Structure formats: C-alpha cells, structure tokens
Amino acid sequence: MSTTDEINLPLIDPTIKGQLLDTSVIGFSFAPQIVFGYGCLNRVGFLSLFLKAQHVFIVTDPEIEKLGLVNKVQQYLEKTGIKSTVFNEIEPNPKEEAVIKGAEKFKNTGSDIVIAIGGGSVIDAGKIIRLLAKQGGRPSDYDSQKCTIMAIHEMLPPQISIPTTSGTGSEVSVVAMVTSKHEKITILGYPLISTIALVDPQLTMSCPPKLTAICGMDALTHAIEAFISLRINPVADMFSLQAIALIYQNLKKAYSNGQDTLARINMSLAATVAGMAFNQKSVGLVHACSHQLSAQCNLSHGLANAIMLPHVLRLNKKVAAPKYTIMGSGFGMDFLNASDDETAEKFILEIEALSKEIGISGKLSECGVKESDIEAMVLNAVKDISAITNPLQPITKEMVEKLYRAAF
Ligand SMILES: [Fe+2]
User: Fold this and answer.
1) How far away, in angstroms, is 238 Cα from ligand 1 center?
2) Cα–Cα dist 305/291, whole Å
C-alpha cells in the first residue's frame, strides 16, 4: 500500500445507503480552533499573541479595506504591540501572480503569521502565500491533479482566518484554489488549514443582498454535496444536516434584511459547519462544474454553484434519492407515502424556489457564459478533483456536457 492509499479516506458503494462497512477506516479531524461569536473580532490581538506573532501579514482585498475592517484589525494588533503589513491585492478568483507576489512580500517584511480577512478568495490566498513563502515555487507546482498531498511537507506559518461572508467555509478547510491561465488549480494539504478560524457574524452585517444570496447557496451546496459524497463520515453528516436546516431557515431572512442579527449569526454558523462537513467528505459534480465556470468565464463561485446545483441533483438522484429525503426533513418537508423519486424531485424544486426567491438567475447564458465555452469546460470538469467523490460514477464527458447545456 502506498502512502497516498493510507491517507485517502475510504470510498463506498452508494447503494449501501450510508451505513458503515466493517472494514471502513474513517478520518475524523475538526481542526482548526474555532472562535465564534458576534463581535469576537476584538480577540484578534490576543489570539495573535497566543500564536507568538511579532509581525502579522494581513491578506485582504480593497473592498474589505474600504469598509475599515483592516484598520480595526491593525488597531487591535497595535494594542498588543504587534506590527503589521497589509497586502490588499487579492481579487475574486485570484490569479497565481497575486499569491506569488504576496509570498515575496511576506518574506521581505519579516512577517511570521498571516491574518486573512475577507471572502474565500482572500482566505485561500493566505493559505497559498504561507505555502509559497515556506516551500517556494509556484502554485501550479502543488496542483493536486499532478502531485499527492505529501507535496506539502513542511509545517507552515500560522494563519488566523476571518471570513466576512457566510459561504465558502475556507476558514476550516485544507483546500486552497487559485486561477492559472483560465484553469483552476486546487491545492490540498493538511498544513494549509488555518490555525484559528475567527468567525464574527457582525462582519457579515454589511454584506449586500446579492453576495449574501450567492454565498449562502455556496454553503448549501457544500452541505448537500458532502452529505451525498461517496466518502463515509457520520459526524460530518450531522454537520451537513444542521447546516442545511440553518440555511433553509435563515438565508431568505438574511437576504431580505441584512440587519437581522439572528439570521446573520445562524448563516455564519451554517457556513462554518458546512465547511467542516466538506472538509471531511469533499464535494461533488456541482463544484467540478462550477470551478470551470469561475476559471473560464469569471463567474462568482457561489453563483456558479447555485445554477448547477439543481441540474446535478437531478442527475445524482438515480443513486442518492434516499439521502435527499433525509436532507428534505431539514427543510421541514413531509414525504409521507411518497416514492424516493418523488421526494427527491420535491427537494430539488424547493431548492430552485429558494434560489429564485433570493434573486438568483437560473441560466448560465444570462451570466455571460457563451456556448463556445462549454467544450473546454467539459474536459476540465471531468478531471476536476471534486468529481471523484460525486455519488454517481463514472463521470463522463457526455454527462457533463448535458449538465452545462441544461443549465445554459
Ligand atoms: Fe464552494
């Protein structure tokens, strides 16, 4: 058995319907340390001291800086006598040049920890900056399609991740993504995980409705794809179900009234918990398709997921319909006397209705995607690492092309 085989979590036959096999080996790990609470940003100085920081490298984007959040972090750090440098050059769907530049600056400033404050792109960028600063090279050198997770073999500098949206779950995951020449590079490795996730729902209060909607659908996609993934992990499944119920009960409220504090708190919790689920069980074909839409057509990740989700669920219901019934109970749906196929369709229709109510268009052609983009996206989606754990296998080019065309 190779080292990689020992590390990979087990795959199961989807017809087994979730029960454990005697021979299964399950990985449980729910790092990082999570500090969660309304207003807990004020702990950032103390937590940096706890990590023995002397010079913090703050990774962010210009929009977050304009909101004054970076200033706040710097003030908390100053109170504890810690210096900081701000690197604000991370755009949505960040390019590899940006993280290479960030890693150089991290080293040149003598920084010893990263604080990433922003959405998933910023937190992912923070992870890759730490990797390149410690091990050198370019992001493509660590592409998970070309090398094993053992490629990241060093302990990396610590990272405090502070999400400003409720969606990506990047603050609790071992994954980081970056775009290189219109292709998404996925980097995977335990050392990438944040040391501390500082989740303060107050930071999401100013998140505009459109961003609230697409981030919320990203979190819902994480919870669903993790739940129906081929990997087994009953603890992660509990997280998925909790997240699904919280999102269903709170996303519309947070979308229609951004000042609904309780809805914001519940959405922050749901996004982090959904992140913990997919960090154990990975995702599936929705993400395999959406990664290409972001890399090639610059669609936001959450929007791409929201559009692809019902189409992929209709495909996967052939093998995962009973699990849809369990997830539907989190929506408060009653499936008494209904067949698996009927319950699955009801569940999908409910997701489509939710998407519509929060203003998400259901078509790729309305979001700037051209028909001529489909061919290249199909080839990349089939080999995307997220496709491996999709419940329906094998994934074929014909299958993926049908999905993109159905969503077009
Ligand atoms: Fe995602």
Assistant:
1) 19
2) 9
- pTM metric for this prediction: 0.91
CB 237 within 8 A of CB 199: no
Cα separation of 57 and 274, whole Å? 28
Are the C-beta atoms of 266 and 250 separated by less than 8 Å? yes
For residue 381, the CA-to-ligand 1 centroid distance in Å is: 15
Token match 């990433």: residue?
Answer: 116
Calpha distance 210→315 (Å, rounded): 27
- The protein residues having their C-beta less than 5 angstroms from ligand 1 (an ion) are 218
Angle between helices 120-135 and 96-108 (to 10 degrees): 60
What letter represents residue 365's amino acid? S
Query: What is the pLDDT, as a whole number, of residue 182?
Result: 78
Tell me how far CA of residue 226 lies from CA of 42, 56, 210, in angstroms.
32, 34, 24
Q: What is the pLDDT of residues 319-373, one digit of tens each?
A: 999 999 999 988 888 777 788 889 999 999 999 999 999 999 779 999 999 999 9
Please answer whether residues 285 and 298 qualify as being in contact, where contact means their C-beta atoms are separated by less than 8 angstroms: no
221 CA distance to ligand 1 centroid (A)? 7
Q: How far is CA 143 from the centre of its chain?
A: 17
Which residues lie below 8 Å from residue 68, measured CB to CB, with a gap of 6+? none
Structural domains of the chain, ranges and CATH numbers in brackets: 33-204 (3.40.50.1970), 208-407 (1.20.1090.10)
